[in-house]
Design brief:
It is a single chain. This protein is an all-alpha fold. The chain has seven helices and no strands. α2 packs across α4 and α3 packs antiparallel against α4.
Length: about 140
Amino acid sequence: MNKKKSQKQSGLSYYGLYLLNYLQENRFEEATDTAFIQERAEQAAATYERARLDGYPAEGAQEVLVQGLHHSRYSVLHEVIEKEFSDEVPEEKRDTFTEKLLPLVSNVFPIYDLTDDHFALSSSYEQLYTELTGAIALYIEAYGI
């Protein structure tokens, strides 16, 4: 880890670091938005403190961090590639292939509400999944992996 990145992260609370890691792992665009991360971390800390003072378990604090962040564009696309194209796209190439395709299919995502925490259970998710499956199949047919 370089010194600048280490200094930036060291200024974050436990919740801020947890959220930053989550956003980076799932490749959310918000991973570079320090104000967003700080605001969510402060909300989580306040939730924790309220629950602790009221005598309740504090599990809700981490829920505050990831509310509306269960489905990144990257993770949805990667899931489709993994489930539908495992024979065509070897596991060691899936991350690179997902990153390559993401800009090409990015125009599909704005019509879907990925911030809905229950999106994966909706018919909209099925429709997005189908659209992405078709787009990936056409890409592989035309260009290969």
